[in-house]
Amino acid sequence: MSSPTSVMPLPIRILLALLLIAGLSLFLYKIHGVLAPFVLAFVLAYVLAPIIDRLEGSGIGRTSSILLVFLSVFSLLGFGVFAAGNRLTVEVRELTDRMQRNESTQSLFLVHNRGDAPLFIDGAEWEYVDGKPNQTSFELSNDVILPLEVLPGQQRGISISFMPDSLLFTQATLRLELGGDRAGQWLVLPVVGNLRHGNERVPSELGLKASEYQIRGVDLEPNWVDMGEAGPNVFTDIGKMAETVQPTLQSYWGDDLDLVTLIKEQGDTLINTLLGSTTVFLGGVVSGLTFVVIVPFVAFFFLKEGRQISRKVIELVPNAYFELCLNLLHQINGQIGGYIRGQILATSVVATLAISGLSIIGLQYAFPVGLLAGFANMIPFLGPLIGIISASIVALATGGTLAMSLVGKVVVIFLVIQIIDNILIQPTVVAKSVEMHPLMVLFVVMVGSQLMGIVGMLIAVPLTGILKVIVQSIYVGIRGYRLQ
Q1: Which of 204, 207, 230 is nearest to 220 (CA)?
Q2: How many CA atoms lie within 13 A of 273 on its CB side?
Q3: Which of 23, 146, 176, 424 reaches 20 to 30 Å from 310, CA-CA?
Q4: Is residue 360 predicted with pLDDT exceeding 90?
Q5: Domains of the chain (ranges plus CATH)?
Q6: 150 beta partners
Q7: Both ends of the chain: CA-CA distance in Å?
Q8: Residues 6+ away with beta carbon under 8 Å from 237
Q9: What is the pTM of this model?
C-alpha cells in the first residue's frame, strides 16, 4: 500500500512565494545598475523584431537580416547624434548648471603674526576694481567679529563669502585696518570671483602686487583668493519674480506666507533629489561602452537566439501544459511588442511637437525641455503636467521681463499638444491600451524617482506596464485553460 503524497499547506506555500518574490525584488534592486543595459537591449530587440522577421521571410538569412537592420539603425542614430548630440549636450549642461549652481561660496585665508607684538585688526572695507562702490558681492562671513587679535607666533583664519547677483567676473580688494601701534596701516588682499565665466583673467602679477603691500612680520596665506563660481540659480530668479506678487497673496493668506522662501527651499530640494539621483545613476550606467558595445551585443543575442531560448523553455514544461505555455508566450510577446512600439511612437510624436512648438515661441533650452516632455508623456496623468511645469520653470527663469507672457505661450503649446495626443495619437497607438489606476501611477513614479531620479520617473510606468501585460496574459491564459 503506497503512502499518501504529502501536500504543503496553502498558508506555507503563500508565505514561501511571498518570501521568494521579496528576495527576488531585493536582488534586482541591488543589481539594477547592471540590468539597465539588458533592459535597453530588450526594448531594442522588441522594436526591431518585426522588421527582421519580415526580411527573414523574404529569403534573407536571420543573421544577415539582423546585421543589415543594425547597420541601418545605428547609422541613423550616429547621424542623429552627430547632428543634434552636441547641441543637446551643451543645453543640458547649461540648464543643469543653472538648476544646481551654488548661490554662494566661501574661502578662508590665514593671517600669520610673525612679529613680537600682538596684531590688532580693527576694521575691514572692500574696494571694487570696476568702480562700483555699492557692490556687495564679497563680504566677511558672519563668524568674523572685528576687532580681533592675533598673538605673536600665532595665526588666525578669516572667512570670506561670495554671493553675486550675476555670473559676471568680479574683482575687489579686501583692506584690513590695523590697530594698536600700527594704526593707519592696512593689510591688502585681492579677491576674484567667477573667473571661469568672464573673459578677463587674473593678472599673473596679482600675487606679487599684493605682497608689496604686506607689513613686515605679517603674512597672508594665500596672498590672493579665487572664490570660484557662484550666482543665482533658477529658483532664485523665480523667487525674485515672486517678490512682486507676494504682498497681494499675503493680503489673502496672511503675513505668514513667505512665497520667496517656499520657492527657494522646495525648489532646491526638488532639484537635488531629481538631478542628484539621476546624475549618480547615469554616471554608473549610461556610458559610451554601454551604448556602443553592450546594448547592441545583447540585442543581437536576443534577436538571434530568442526563438531557441523560447523553445528550450517550452521543452521544460510538462506535456499537459505545453499548449497553454505556448499560447501564453505568443500572447505576451505580441502584447509587450505592441506596448513598447506604441510607447516609442507616442513619445517621438509628442517630443517632436514639443520641441517645434517651444522653439517657435522662442523658449531657451527648447530641445532638452521638449525631449523631457515627450518622455514624460509616457506617465499617465502626471506626464503632461511634468512637461508644462518644466517648460514654465525655464520660461520664468530665462524670459526676463516677458517671462509671464512666455509662460502663457508655453501653456497654449502644451494644450494643443494634448489635444493632438488625445484625438489623433492615443486612439491609434497600442501603448495606451495598458491602463493603470492613478494611485498606482503615483506610487511607481515616486519609487522610480527615489531610485534613479528623472530616469526612474520616466521608465517606472512603462516597466510596470510591461509587468502588468505579462501578469494579465498569464491570468487570462490560465483562466481560459481551466474553463475548457
Answers
A1: 207
A2: 14
A3: 23
A4: yes
A5: 105-226 (2.60.40.10)
A6: 119
A7: 34
A8: 396, 397
A9: 0.65
